[in-house]
Amino acid sequence: MPGPNNIRISHAYQVGLLAALGVLTAIMIGNALYSIASILTSIVTALFIAVGLEPIIQRLEKRVKRRGFAIAIVGAGLVAVMTSVIMVILPPLITQTAEFVRHLPDLLNGLVELPWVNSLDQRFGGAISNALTTSGEYLSNSKNWPNLLGGVVQVGITLFNGALGFLTVSVLTIYFMSSLHSIKTVLVNLVAKTKRPKVGKMVDQVISSVGRYVMGQVTVASINASVVFITLLIAGVDYAVVLAFIDFLLVLIPVVGSISGALLVIIITAATMPPETTITVAVVVLLYTQLEAYLISPRIMTKAVNVPAALVMISALAGGALLGILGALLAIPVAATMLLIIREVWVPLQDKR
């Protein structure tokens, strides 16, 4: 008959075995998620775009009376916009990008000649000028580009993966646009029948909120890039198309995108243009940044997501730290969804107690 000590040893062995199995399972799940990270990113991106286009589809559906026709119109509009971008913006973008890279050493030397940069360079014993000069010479040499990207074969693989990812996201976006109602129905049917109307209403509010947020963010970024492009064009600044395009991408990032784009534009202008032009561009860009922060963006985004400013900043920073740019874009709609759930589910439960 086994004694108490044997029973304790047996229990300890079982606990240790179960703990080891739990750790191994967690590692296997983590490796599986890491292996399909690119696929999950494509799915989330496509769903985000589809939900963002949902308000436009709903408005068109009310006019054409058929959701399929509305989706076809939106799809044709996207193709038309992308074709216009490729035909109108892409050629000067490629040309100015090539010129930008070719003149990068001169731009970096121009930065060193700025009084405040020169002062810092002298304090650090010329380390800043040496670093900028070395970086500019390395990046301007096209022979170094394959090495920078991992070799010629890796460059080809990267381009192929990029094209494949774009095609995948496009196909998934069309699929999600056409089946969004079916997906919503499946999700709603997972809850009890008595709660389905309320849950369905909440899902509609989430979809509408995310859609308005996406369209609002794109609108804000488009206005910002247009102002930057017109300002640089009037001031005669080189690389206006490139800087406006980069500014558009940066402004899509909540909280920090607008000021990051403004600083980039001012720094490049300072490195390539006389001081009076730099001051003019800086004044216009910074004034518009303030106008956007206090007037344009609140009017557009308040209608989209009703999230406190502090929570917007915390959500954007946390999302950016976890998933990069995509995480920063998704963070605010996720925060709005959590607030909606708390307001519609948690608070009523607490009120009944």
Describe this structure in words.
The protein has 353 residues and is mostly helical. The chain has a domain at 37-190. It has 13 helices and no strands. It has helices at 4-35, 37-64, 67-102, 104-112, 115-123, 127-140, 145-148, 152-188, 196-235, 240-251, 257-272, 275-302, 309-352. Helix 2 crosses helix 9 and helix 11 runs antiparallel to helix 12. The chain is globular. The chain starts with a helix and ends with a helix. Residues 149-153 have low confidence and may be disordered.
What is the helical fraction, as a range of percent?
Answer: over 70%
Cα distance spanning the termini: 53 Å
What are the segments in which pLDDT stays under 50 over at least 5 consecutive residues?
A: 149-153
Structural class: mainly alpha
Rounded to the nearest angstrom, the radius of gyration is: 26 Å
The proportion of strand residues reads: under 5%
Number of helices: 13
DSSP summary, beta strand count = 0
Biggest β-sheet: count, sense, barrel? none
Run of helices and strands: HHHHHHHHHHHHH
